[in-house]
Write a structure and sequence with these properties.
CATH topology of the largest domain: FAD/NAD(P)-binding domain
Strand order of the largest sheet: 3-2-1-7-18
Bound molecules: flavin-adenine dinucleotide
Shape: globular
Largest sheet: 5 strands, parallel
Helix content: 25-40%
Structural class: alpha/beta
Distance between the termini: 67 Å
Number of strands: 23
Strand content: 15-25%
């Protein structure tokens, strides 16, 4: 069996390694840098930046220890250099894994000639296979207006190699996950930050309490947030300007740099999927096994538009390859958590309270303020809460964790939902003390009104 994977991002290289584990002959074609968006201009660079931002913030707030008595100086170029070192180390790791799994790596751009054949643009070679897995990812979207098309107006792709300095003003158009993470970084290194968001609140798809509380925290840290703000015009040369209306009142924001973070779009034009008979809309649509309308051509990751998350791309890649080798296997929908790496982080899985209320569902909610957890207090991370949503019989349906290390805690609740656990069925799980994650125990017990570290609701 020969499998060709097109795109060497997290979806593509995961699928390639999985296929190699089935002893297939595997070819992985990547036109740019191995690791794709996630490694080179997405998850990893942002988290490297945010890690360093947290160090700066920790220094800034450590005066109480008498250790530091001035605002920390930092070198933004050093932050970029460290990010580069992290990225290149991880990229080398992927290349080594491909080599160890005997995956043939081709650096080129692929396009379909027909259902069974690809053309490699630079080499001019044709390549055929039994199965193709499209993993060509996505690129930043730009607003449909003249100024927004200028390369002088950045997208997230442009943020990782050019330093912005303390005191410079950054205007972020879009208060979704990427906009909020970039705002968190830029405010920590001392930039003045404005977020312009068209919806009623930043992070509109996240639990309302978490997004509102995060907005309040960001505002206290001098981030300006304009919501219900519709961008009318972008002046794409210095001094950069964003002109928007909020409740019919015009606002003019002058900035040193404008960054658009207004969503992403699937990448497949150069791949020419129509030559293979693969149907497309704005994305490449797939079934539950990630097959396109052409059964031996699969599409995983951002390009199918289902999730736009790195771990979803990797998980879909594994499901697709499993399906190639075991087509009769029962397919279970993937349960995919999402995380905003704000400070504190927001991690969500399954049903959230905002949606449950909007849909008039019958549900119960347990809520625990992390300020009552010993380890949160020890680490000076008292802000935030954990919500656990259940049905009437206490079966866990969802959770929002707004807390330090939320991303590390959410898999516990993901597993609980996947295995149909109730609050009572998990009572035997004893969490070590003192830990951040033991806050989950109180949040879950609060569904029954029995949290130990919360004041009783009814006497
Ligand atoms: C700033 C930012 C932060 C993010 N942070 C997170 C996060 O913290 N957590 C998270 O889960 N997700 C995050 N994401 C989203 C995540 O990066 C994507 O969901 C993920 O990269 C999708 O993986 P993929 O394999 O589908 O595509 P990609 O990673 O985009 O890879 C696709 C690859 O295909 C190649 N390619 C395209 N066309 C061809 C062709 N014709 N021939 C050969 N090669 C081709 C491209 O060069 C690219 O390398 C972030 C995204 C951004 C922009």
């Amino acid at each position: 069996m020969k499998i060709v994977v097109i795109g060497g991002g997290i979806g593509g290289y995961t699928a390639a390694i999985k296929a190699a584990q089935y002893k297939a002959e595997v070819v992985l074609i990547e036109k740019g840098k191995l690791g794709g968006t996630c490694l080179n201009r997405g998850c990893i660079p942002t988290k490297a930046f945010l890690h360093d931002a947290h160090i700066i913030d920790s220094v800034r707030t450590s005066k109480a220890l008498g250790i530091f008595d001035s605002v920390p100086n930092h070198n933004v170029q050093a932050i970029i250099d460290r990010k580069d070192a992290v990225v290149s180390r991880l990229r080398d790791g992927i290349a080594s894994l491909c080599k160890a799994n005997k995956i043939e790596l081709i650096e080129d751009e692929a396009s379909f000639i027909d259902q069974n054949t690809l053309l490699l643009k630079n080499r001019g070679d044709k390549i055929s296979a039994d199965v193709f897995i499209i993993a060509t990812g996505s690129m930043p979207h730009r607003l449909p207006m003249e100024g927004a098309q200028s390369e002088e107006v950045w997208t997230s792709d442009d943020c990782f190699d050019t330093p912005l300095l303390a005191g410079q003003h950054v205007c972020l158009i879009g208060g979704g996950v990427i906009g909020v993470e970039l705002a968190t970084f830029y405010k920590s290194i001392g930039c003045n930050v404005t977020i312009v968001e068209a919806q009623k609140r930043i992070l509109p798809s996240i639990d309302k309490d978490a997004s509102n509380q995060l907005a309040t925290m960001l505002k206290k840290q001098s981030v300006t947030i304009l919501t219900n703000a519709f961008v009318k015009e972008i002046i794409a040369k210095s001094p950069f300007q964003v002109i928007c209306t909020v409740n019919d009142i015009e606002h003019k924001i002058t900035a040193d740099r404008i960054i658009q973070s207004v969503g992403r779009k699937a990448v497949f034009d150069e791949l020419k999927p129509a030559n293979a008979g693969v149907k497309t809309t704005k994305v490449i649509s797939v079934n539950e096994a990630y097959q396109t309308n052409i059964p031996h051509i699969y599409a995983i990751g951002d390009v199918n538009g289902q999730s736009w998350l790195a771990h979803a791309a990797a998980a879909q890649g594994k499901v697709a390859v499993d399906h190639v080798f075991n087509p009769g296997r029962t397919l279970h929908p993937l349960l995919i958590p999402s995380v905003v790496y704000s400070d504190p982080q927001i991690a969500s899985i399954g049903l959230d309270e905002t949606i449950a209320k909007e849909q008039n569902m019958e549900f119960k909610v347990g809520k625990f303020l992390v300020s009552a957890n010993g380890k949160h207090v020890v680490e000076g991370k008292e802000r935030g809460f954990i919500k656990v949503i259940t049905d009437k019989e206490n079966k866990i349906l969802g959770s929002t964790i707004f807390s330090h290390l939320a991303s590390e805690m959410i898999p516990y609740l993901t597993q609980a939902i996947l295995t149909n656990q109730t609050i009572e069925s998990l009572e035997g799980v004893v969490f070590p003390h003192p830990t951040i994650i033991e806050s989950l125990e109180d949040a879950m017990a609060d569904v029954l009104g029995l949290a130990i570290h919360s004041f009783p609701k009814v006497r």
